[in-house]
């Protein structure tokens, strides 16, 4: 019996209605209820977020010459799953990476899917490796910090390693140099091609600012050269040189030896990373007598023509102090005491000043606190509190033993005298240049009056006498009047007392004496020649001569020498 | 206006409603065939040819324009991307050249080069004070 066509049509209709109804319901779920979730899922598969690293700012010298710069480099890595012939691959790559092939084999054969073969390789070397088309060898783009002048000012510039540990200006100004990374959201096809009209949102990175330092590349280089030679000539352990402008506090150079090349910090001795001019303390010795003299003139009632009766040794309690050489009891003016660097004379001046007076002037000259540079790990120095001073403290501190200072603090003392008694906070940064190229000058260094101008002028006279006829004659520069002071300090033994036959030799001075343009501190650690006038004064002279040439310093009229009991 | 009048006077069968040939004779075997009335007026075409041509042209132009615009935008997107890449490359090249200049002009490199070529440091710089000037200083 044949079913009537109408019935079949109805069944077919119902079937279609049910089927389309199901599809419609499903579509409803997909398009209405789950629409957002599926759309988001689809977008997530296509949209990729790429981090755009910010270009790290440069560090430049005062003339704008880059001292630290970030360039493109490549990391070379292997995916061992695709490496066909590890031995042949190693043989092909090793000469380009300047390593032995066997050092690459572990990375090419280990069980994982990723192994670095070399990091921060030059772009040219990476291009040669890529040209070999070796399966499983990949090069990725990475930034690389370069120091074009090698070890020049390396301890001042510092560096940052891959763990984020940093030194020097790189660390101090990290947030300013680093900039802010950006992001790019792009829509890519499954094959990785850009979908041109798809999602494309660029949150551009903000490049780091350029740090303009006060460093003069030429003076810095010469200072390092002279220092290295002086350390070798004097068979010393190391040394430090600081060159600065007393009028502005600008530091032209900080040289330390031994030093290191920040381009290869991974293989350098970590002991050389610190900027010892700022982080290391030493007992200053006789260069500290200038503070005793300043205090004597201002609060001790000492006059320039006043005479002191100075024996060669003096006993205080159970402790005996003495001058560097035996001499009969001599009549000395304050100028003579400084010129001849008499410890006994300095202690007699300190007696006039008293503990409080001397401690006050040590603090006024900046001892016991950092210079304000903000340099990482900068030391504040150690000055015992007045109640802790022993019977001998007043005397020993008067000639620079029993307190610890940094070379920068000591250079700052002489810069203060050179600047007419006004301390100008040293500075290493002239300003910053933003990514748009606009220069933002750093605020002028804070200043404070430490001594009167009259006192500073009298101190300058005494320091000029040191060079013209005292212990610092090796610092003389023909045509220029140099003012400065020698120092020969014992080195304290952590176990107590002082090392025997181990000294820090120093000479700190400025020129021209009547119109100072540059202060140079030369400090040598444990020279065999012992004395500051022998080991450090010639080094000062070399650096100062170069600074004269480099900065175009003209001679100026001489200052009057102080009254002397030896040459009335 | 004439159509309703015709419908009232002569209900002519519509071609769509024409009965099946097999059944019609059974119902009215003797009925004489009704002559199809001649249309009183020529029927107007659904679309004017000009309209068709214009519409087709317009749609073609619009579709082509949209496609071309799309292609243009796509091309420009690629060009912008390429140019961005070029800018990035040139910036990197500029930095690389700056680095190279700084490296080549580094005092240490120049000194090494100069020493290798037999050059020596100059003798001391002598300052010759001008007679009558305030300068000169102490030795």
Notes on the structure:
The complex is a heterodimer of chains A (568) and B (139). Chain A has 568 residues and is of the alpha+beta class. Chain A has a domain of 335 residues: Beta-lactamase (3-Layer(aba) Sandwich). In chain A, helix 3 crosses helix 4, helix 11 crosses helix 13 and helix 12 crosses helix 16. Chain A is elongated. Chain B is mainly alpha-helical and 139 residues long. Chain B has a domain of 32 residues. Classes of the chains: A alpha+beta (568), B mainly alpha (139).
Reported for the largest beta sheet of chain A, the result is: 7 strands, mixed
Q: Please identify the oligomeric state.
A: heterodimer
Number of strands of chain B: 0
Mean pLDDT of chain A: 92
Global Rg of chain B: 51 Å
Number of helices of chain A: 17
Write a brief structural summary.
The complex is a heterodimer of chains A (568) and B (139). With 568 residues, chain A is an alpha+beta fold.
């Amino acid at each position: 019996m044949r079913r009537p066509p109408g019935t079949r049509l109805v069944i077919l209709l119902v079937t279609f209605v049910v089927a389309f109804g199901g599809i419609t319901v499903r579509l409803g779920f997909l398009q209405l209820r789950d629409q957002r979730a599926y759309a988001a899922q689809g977008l997530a598969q296509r949209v990729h977020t790429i981090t755009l690293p910010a270009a790290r700012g440069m560090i430049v010298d005062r003339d704008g010459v880059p001292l630290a710069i970030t360039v493109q480099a490549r990391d070379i890595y292997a995916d061992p799953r695709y490496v066909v012939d590890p031995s042949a691959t190693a043989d092909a790559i090793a000469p380009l990476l300047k390593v032995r092939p066997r050092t690459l084999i572990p990375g090419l054969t280990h069980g994982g899917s990723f192994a670095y073969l070399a990091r921060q390789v030059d772009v040219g070397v990476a291009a040669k490796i890529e040209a070999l088309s070796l399966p499983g060898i990949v090069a990725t783009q990475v930034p690389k910090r370069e120091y074009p002048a090698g070890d020049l000012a390396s301890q001042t510039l510092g560096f940052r390693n891959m763990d984020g540990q940093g030194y020097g200006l790189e660390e101090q100004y990290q947030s300013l140099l680093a900039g802010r990374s950006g992001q790019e959201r792009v829509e890519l096809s499954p094959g990785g091609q850009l979908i041109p009209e798809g999602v494309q949102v660029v949150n551009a990175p903000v490049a780091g600012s350029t740090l303009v330092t006060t460093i003069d590349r030429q003076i810095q280089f010469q200072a390092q050269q002279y220092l290295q030679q002086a350390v070798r000539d004097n068979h010393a352990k190391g040394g430090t040189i600081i060159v600065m402008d007393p009028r502005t506090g600008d530091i032209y150079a900080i040289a330390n030896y031994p030093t290191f090349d920040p381009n290869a910090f991974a293989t350098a001795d970590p002991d050389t990373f610190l900027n010892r001019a700022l982080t290391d303390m030493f007992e200053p010795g006789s260069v500290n007598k200038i503070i005793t003299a300043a205090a004597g003139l201002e609060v001790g009632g000492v006059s320039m023509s006043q005479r002191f009766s100075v024996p060669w040794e003096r006993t205080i309690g159970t402790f005996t102090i003495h001058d560097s050489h035996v001499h009969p009891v001599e009549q000395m003016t304050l100028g003579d005491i400084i010129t001849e660097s008499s410890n006994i004379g300095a202690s007699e001046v300190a007696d006039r000043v008293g503990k409080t007076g001397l401690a006050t002037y040590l603090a006024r000259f900046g001892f016991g606190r950092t210079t304000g540079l903000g340099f990482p790990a900068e030391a504040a120095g150690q000055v015992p509190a007045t109640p802790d001073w022993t019977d001998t403290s007043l005397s020993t501190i008067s000639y620079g033993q029993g307190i610890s200072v940094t070379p920068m603090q000591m250079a700052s003392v002489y810069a203060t005298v050179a600047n007419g008694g006004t301390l100008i906070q040293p500075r290493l940064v002239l300003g910053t240049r933003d990514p748009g190229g606009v220069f933002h000058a750093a605020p002028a260094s804070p200043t404070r009056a430490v001594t009167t101008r009259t006192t500073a002028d009298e101190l300058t006279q005494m320091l000029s006498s040191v060079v013209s006829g005292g212990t610092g004659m090796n610092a003389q520069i023909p045509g220029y009047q140099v003012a400065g002071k020698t120092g020969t300090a014992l080195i304290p033994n952590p176990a107590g007392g002082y090392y025997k036959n181990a000294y820090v030799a120093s000479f700190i001075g400025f020129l021209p004496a009547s119109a100072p343009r540059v202060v140079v501190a030369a400090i040598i650690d444990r020279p065999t020649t012992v004395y500051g006038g022998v080991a450090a004064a010639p080094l000062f002279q070399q650096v100062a001569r170069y600074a004269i040439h480099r900065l175009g310093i003209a001679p100026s009229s001489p200052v009057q020498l102080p009254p002397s009991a030896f040459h009335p | 206006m004439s159509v309703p009048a015709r419908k009232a006077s002569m209900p002519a069968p519509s071609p769509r409603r024409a009965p099946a040939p097999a059944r019609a004779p059974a119902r009215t075997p003797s009925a004489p065939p009704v002559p199809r009335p001649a249309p009183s007026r020529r029927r107007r075409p659904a679309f004017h040819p000009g309209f068709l041509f214009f519409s087709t042209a317009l749609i073609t132009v619009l579709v082509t324009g949209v496609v071309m615009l799309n292609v243009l935008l796509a091309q420009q997107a690629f060009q912008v991307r390429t140019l961005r890449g070029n800018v990035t490359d040139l910036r990197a090249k500029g930095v690389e050249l700056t680095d190279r200049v700084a490296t080549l002009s580094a005092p240490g490199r120049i000194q090494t080069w100069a020493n290798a070529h037999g050059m020596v440091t100059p003798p001391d710089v002598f300052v010759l004070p001008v007679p009558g000037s305030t300068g000169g200083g102490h030795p």
